[in-house]
Amino acid sequence: MKKIAIIGSGFSSLSAACYLAQAGNAVTLFEKNEAIGGRASQFRKDGFTFDMGPTFYWMPDVFKRFFSDFNRNSSDYYELSRLDPGYKVYFDKDDALEVSVSLDLLYKAFEKEEPGSSKFLKKFLKMAEFNYNAAMDKVIYRPGKSPLELVTFATVSRLNQFATSISKTIRKNVKSPRLIKILEFPVIFLGAKPQNIPTFYCFMNYADMILGTWHPKGGFYKVIQGFGKLANELGVTIKTNAPVEKIEVDNNIATGLRVNNESLPFDFIISGADYHHTETLLDTPNKNYNEKYWEKKTFAPSALLFFVGFDKKLKNVNHHTLFFDTDFDKHIDTIYGEPSWPSAPLFYTSFPSITDDTMAPEGKEAGIFLIPLAPGLKDSEAIREEYFKKLIERMERITDQSLNDNILFKKSFGVNDFVTDYNAYKGNAYGLANTLMQTAFLKPKMENKKVKNLVYTGQLTVPGPGVPTTIISGKIAADLTLEKLKKQ
To answer: pTM of the predicted model, to two decimals?
Structure first.
């Protein structure tokens, strides 16, 4: 039995902890905040419940595979329901499209918008299904050590898809700006402009339109609690209010952690904390990467969020509602072009209490508002207030209802908070962008090249941003650790 320390308690850390404990190791997990979850945290007030992190439950097969590895089911820990429609997109007042569970209805909606587009959608989703199965079969579970990891029959047969952007593929076959937005939306979760994401990643459209959008009753935090409960069942020790101040190294071997001014010895260390922050816990000679390396990287967006309690039920909105009534490309350019605050932002809303009556008191509505932003922007309360006013005014106009006078309270969370609460580099919310030059073996390495017995996991390394991928990242980190321990 080896003593293993894990820094952080997000999905990647909890995943790694479970696999390592199952293998018979003594695992201790350290979380700087009061509760587990990392970015998948929760805010509760006056009977309202808000997920402060992920709200889209996609790729349910990844969660199923995780729990099955421990002879469990996700239903042992939380209750899922599929949303139908998955979400609604507003292009303007009285101009919206819903992504239905029924493919027939979806094809009809596309065809109504642009004759002939449904034929492309059918081919596109078939391609997306092939790519999804190819990625999930082997590629996505590999540690990013070598370009050869990408070489499978499936990927070789799809090499042209790595040389062409998903945006180019979509726009070559679809002309409607509305349908283009619908088809490009899922890859935003990968953290880059659709023009810079290879067509191979269309498997996100399969996750969206075929596997669907789900909701855990009680909110996404129930999933974190499920992971935490499983970890406890497997014998993992979880310590909260336990900020790690130093990774201790002796003769190029990681030997322990300094936590709350106390030195604690360990045989192996995994960090699921922000990769850049983890490197600040090491002396300069022991870091994998210097500051110039991080400055050159393309990061996924940060975000400005608002958590709002309304004193009434809202109309003309779905559980998940997107407001794409402004210029999509201009907003994306403020994130990946010249970083700046968008003048007319796209925004996303979630009203989980529409589906789940545990999320708000009876007759009231819990609302989450999110604007994707470039990381590192100047953040202030004045700026936040300005943008909240813009969002409310837009939503009032588009959904034809008054809102401002029905707000009981609101809480904001922005770039500065991502830095303070999660030690996120430049306040990023989603990790590194999945551009071609930051894919697989081109991402920051999971293994420290200078220090033995130290491994990194999470959204800044393989496979990349998103809850399912960070769960997989935890498994990869655990497998690497077990492999190294066998050789010692």
So the answer is: 0.97
